[in-house]
């Protein structure tokens, strides 16, 4: 289109965008107008051109426009909305956001006392939005690249692993309707939402198996929403005889939810949380979450010699990598296996019986 001088003395550079519409920008110096025009034409030739008007949309506006096209579960929508609405730059034009703005947001979450894992989750969700902006050619670069995040604690230092004695105390303290729920989490490794969504028909009492096909999620107004389990979590869990017996004694007189909530629904997560806190108080225990029972189950499988894939399938992890990232510190090391083998040799030779303990019982 060329560079022309306006009556006011400023220089006007013009190009035709990919959509066939004219784009213009004005400069005080001709050299700056020529440089801008040259850069825009080069980007058009390379296919990397960005419409200057696109970058004016705010981060929040772009997220709302982009998010409606995404195929997300309800929980993902809530998590993404929480992360985006909590950013300190949500009302800024998308193209004006720099890495320094993202760093300021991360620092504000740290100062507010959010856990490192929470900060990393929210950062990951926001980074997804910026990556979408790059793919849509709304911005040239992702400002989250290179941002330093707070360090996570090591799994072996942060994981709470209940002891067998503590599990026994919880089962003794739990009221009758809640005791089987605790047992299902401790001895079948179900997540809270999965356990709440079990129906009587999911249990094969003769085959001693439980099929996990759904989960309960929170919904507005104290309601619950039934959704498929997390990706890769559909599975068959093999139940011990004692747990099958316990569940059989608990089964209501109709084929419905194994654990009842109000209005014929399964129990709400808030209800389960209240019952859990009450049970812990009656057992005199603190610092243990219901999810820690899942860790207890995993540790028992590992102590019994189950391999990574077996544990992965039992827990419903999407990949063995997830299992290893979470529980690698619980698998016996080469030193542990050497000592165990030597102990077995000594037992066979001397008649002494080695004392092998469940890792969660010490």
How confident is the prediction overall: mean pLDDT? 87
Q: Which regions have little confidence, pLDDT < 50, spanning 5+ residues?
A: none
Return the string of H and E elements.
Answer: EEEHHHHHHHHHEEEEEHHHHHH
The number of distinct helices, counting runs of at least 4 residues, comes to 15
Total count of strands: 8
Shape: elongated
Tell me about the largest β-sheet: 3 strands, antiparallel
| Lateral arrangement of strands in the main beta sheet | 1-2-3
Fraction of helical residues: 40-55%
Please give the radius of gyration in angstroms: 29 Å
| CA-CA gap between termini | 79 Å
Pick out its properties.
362 residues, mainly alpha, 3-stranded antiparallel beta sheet, 8 strands
What features would you describe in this structure?
- The chain has 362 residues and is mainly α.
- 47% of the residues lie in helices and 9% in strands.
- It has 15 helices and eight strands.
- The protein has helices spanning 30-46, 59-67, 74-85, 99-111, 116-135, 155-158, 164-173, 179-188, 192-196, 241-250, 269-283, 292-303, 308-315, 320-327, 334-350, and strands spanning 2-5, 11-16, 22-27, 203-204, 209-212, 215-218, 224-227, 235-238.
- The strands form three sheets. A three-stranded antiparallel beta sheet has the order 1-2-3, with helices on one face. A three-stranded antiparallel beta sheet has the order 4-5-8.
- β4 (203-204) and β5 (209-212) form a beta hairpin.
- α3 packs across α5 (116-135), α7 crosses α11 (269-283) and α8 crosses α12.
- It is elongated and about 100 Å long.
- The mean pLDDT is 87.
């Amino acid at each position: 289109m060329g560079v022309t001088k306006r009556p006011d003395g400023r220089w006007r550079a013009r190009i035709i965008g990919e959509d066939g519409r004219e784009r213009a920008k004005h400069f005080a110096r001709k050299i700056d107008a020529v440089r801008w025009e040259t850069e825009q034409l080069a980007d058009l030739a390379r296919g990397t051109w960005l419409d200057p008007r696109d970058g004016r949309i705010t981060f929040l506006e772009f997220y709302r426009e982009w998010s409606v096209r995404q195929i997300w579960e309800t929980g993902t929508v809530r998590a993404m909305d929480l992360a985006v609405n909590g950013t300190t730059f949500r009302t800024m034009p998308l193209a004006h956001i720099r890495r320094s703005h993202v760093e300021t947001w991360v620092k504000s979450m740290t100062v507010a006392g959010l856990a490192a894992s929470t900060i990393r989750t929210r950062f990951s969700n926001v980074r997804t939005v910026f990556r979408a902006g790059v793919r849509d050619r709304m911005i040239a670069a992702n400002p989250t690249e290179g941002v330093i995040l707070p360090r996570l604690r090591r799994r072996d230092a942060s994981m709470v692993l209940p002891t067998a004695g503590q599990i026994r105390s919880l089962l003794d303290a739990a009221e009758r309707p809640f005791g089987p729920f605790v047992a299902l989490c401790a001895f079948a490794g179900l997540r809270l939402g999965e356990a709440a969504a079990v129906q009587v028909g999911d249990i094969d009492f003769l085959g001693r198996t439980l099929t996990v096909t759904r989960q309960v999620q929170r919904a507005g107004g104290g309601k619950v929403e039934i959704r498929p389990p997390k990706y890769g979590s559909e599975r068959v869990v093999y139940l011990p005889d004692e747990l099958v017996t316990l569940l059989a004694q608990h089964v209501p007189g109709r084929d419905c939810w194994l654990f009842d909530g109000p209005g014929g629904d399964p129990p709400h997560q808030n209800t389960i949380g209240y019952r859990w806190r009450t049970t812990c108080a009656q057992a005199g225990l603190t610092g243990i979450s219901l999810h820690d029972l899942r860790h207890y189950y995993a540790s028992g499988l590992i102590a019994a010699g189950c391999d990574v894939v077996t544990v992965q399938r039992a827990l419903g992890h999407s990949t063995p990598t997830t299992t290893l990232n979470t529980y690698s510190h619980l698998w016996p090391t080469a030193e542990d296996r050497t000592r165990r083998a030597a102990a077995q040799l000594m037992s066979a030779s001397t008649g002494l019986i080695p004392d092998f303990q469940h890792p969660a019982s010490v």
